[in-house]
Specification:
β41 (391-398) and β42 form a beta hairpin. By secondary structure, the protein is mainly beta. Helix content is 5%, strand content 47%. It has a 25-stranded parallel β-sheet that branches. The chain has an 8-stranded mixed β-sheet with strand order 25-30-33-36-38-42-41-40, with no helix packed on it. The chain has a 7-stranded parallel β-sheet with strand order 21-24-29-32-35-37-39, with no helix packed on it. Among the domains are: 1-206, Pectate Lyase C-like; 297-410, no CATH class. The chain crosses the membrane at residues 438-458. It holds the Pfam family AC_1. Residues 435-460 form the IPTL-CTERM protein sorting domain.
């Protein structure tokens, strides 16, 4: 097809394909575009460009609304486009104007050299299949939903496959996604920036959680708050919390990766400034856990248990509920079936009504480590102890485990306070030294001598 320009808009109703483009440019100006195929594909493109910078409705009753095995489809953009993607690749973009794409499948991009799908607004809906599907045997794919609505009534909202190309997906805060996200083979990444994910039923990274096959799938949850089912997050070698997330995982377990690849830690990683909580009393992380933020078991109920089947790396905080009493006291605790590293984790202890008591044996168990645990892997906040009811609790490492041990607090006797002497102040008015005074005995002696002298004088007169 050569270059074709429709200046007054375009309306096509077809029982087969609506627009078929294998080369050149199809451009629609005017007020609106309406491409409707009752059976086939509304827009089918293998090369060239279909450009509709107007409000548009692209509909296929039983087929695919947009099928791109190459070329470019630009809908609802603010200006006309003339650039074309590289040969063997496809680009489908939806701008900020009112655009509706709907079919059994919404958008399918299957160029062997790689595919890019972008949404800045509008809506893409699939009635029985996939809303957005990309597939390249070995090349890279990119999906970026900045804004707009993506809905899959029965299938997948986003699908990557069956090729094993690396696919990158980004969802921004204004994106609305309903349905599942399923990525296939290859090293895929999904970054979610503050998106409401409550209507996403499954977030699947692809094949498994092992790096042995060379595929490494990474899920980044940024500014994600509130409760989410742990079972929603499937087949990710690395899951990281960023952007001040405060995520509560519901259910009993989460499977993720372990080890490191090129210096990058696999597993569940809680970065600084982020918080991970658990709704159930017992939760297992099947893989490694890195905690540079805050992992909170504290929920005003002691006895919760977090089990990490792999290794634990610290640097952040671990909040625990404990009834500060004797060694039988209820307490939350962390179980690590692997090893813990040497980066300290600060244990924030909330006392749930404990009145204090001396502990016996090892004390109150807080952290149980099956492997090795580095010295100072866990600490208490300053001043390094907790007082309750006249007893002082301190953290002690016994083997690879960590306990609270308590004994009666020692009270230091301050002693009897001394009254300081008040120094004599010289008489600065006269600057005269004090005249010494006679003592009591000297006065008595003088008085006696005076009396004796008087008697002697009296006798002499009598003679």
């Amino acid at each position: 097809m050569g270059s074709t320009l429709f200046r007054s808009g375009l309306t096509i109703y077809s029982t087969s394909n609506g627009i078929l483009n294998t080369a050149g440019l199809v451009q629609v100006q005017g007020s609106a575009a309406n491409i409707n195929s009752t059976v086939g594909t509304a827009i089918n493109i293998s090369a060239g460009t279909v450009d509709m910078p107007v409000p548009a409705t692209i509909t296929s009753a039983t087929g695919t609304a947009i099928l791109a095995s190459g070329g470019q489809v630009a809908l609802g953009n603010s200006a006309h486009t003339s650039a074309t993607p590289a040969a063997g690749t496809s680009l489908v973009s939806i701008g900020t104007q009112a655009v509706t794409v709907q079919g059994a499948n919404g958008i399918q991009a299957s160029a062997t050299g790689g595919n890019t799908v972008q949404m800045q607004g509008g809506s893409v809906a699939a009635t029985t299949g996939d809303a957005i599907a990309v597939n390249a045997p070995d090349a890279a794919n990119s999906i970026h939903i900045q804004a707009g609505q993506l809905t899959a009534s029965a299938g997948r909202a986003i699908f990557d496959g069956p090729g094993n190309g690396d696919t990158s997906v980004t969802l921004d805060s204004a994106a609305q996604v309903s349905g599942s996200i399923v990525l296939g083979d290859g090293s895929d990444s999904l970054t979610i920036h503050g998106t409401d994910i409550s209507q996403i039923t499954l977030i699947d990274g692809g094949d498994d959680v092992s790096t042995a096959d060379g595929y490494v799938d990474r899920l980044t949850l940024a500014a994600i708050n509130g409760p989410q089912p742990a079972a929603k997050f499937l087949n990710w070698e690395r899951i990281s919390l960023e952007g001040n997330s405060d995520l509560t995982l519901t259910g009993s377990s989460l499977a993720t990766g372990s080890g490191a690849l090129a210096g990058e830690a696999m597993g569940l990683v809680v970065n600084a400034g982020n918080t991970l909580r658990f709704q159930d009393a017992a939760f297992s992380v099947h893989g490694d856990l890195g905690n540079q933020g805050q992992v909170a078991l504290s929920n005003s109920q002691a006895g919760d248990v977090l089990t990490v089947t792999g290794n634990y790396a610290g640097g952040g905080g671990l909040a625990l509920d404990v009834v500060l009493g004797d060694s039988s006291s209820a307490a939350d605790h962390l179980v690590v079936q692997g090893n813990t590293d040497a980066t300290p984790t600060t244990l924030a202890i909330s006392n749930l009504g404990g009145t204090g008591a001396a502990t016996s044996g090892n004390g109150i168990l807080l952290v149980q480590v099956a492997g090795s645990s580095a010295t100072n892997a866990f600490t208490l906040p300053a001043p390094g102890y907790i007082d309750a009811g006249g007893f002082r609790y301190q953290l002690a490492q016994v083997g690879s485990n960590w306990y609270l041990q308590a004994k009666a607090a020692v009270v230091t006797d301050p002693g009897t306070p001394q009254i300081p002497e008040v120094p004599q102040v010289p008489d600065t008015a006269t600057n005269l030294a004090r005249v010494p005074t006679l003592g009591r005995w000297a006065l008595m002696l003088l008085s006696s001598l005076a009396a004796l002298f008087g008697m002697v004088q009296l006798r002499r007169r009598q003679r």
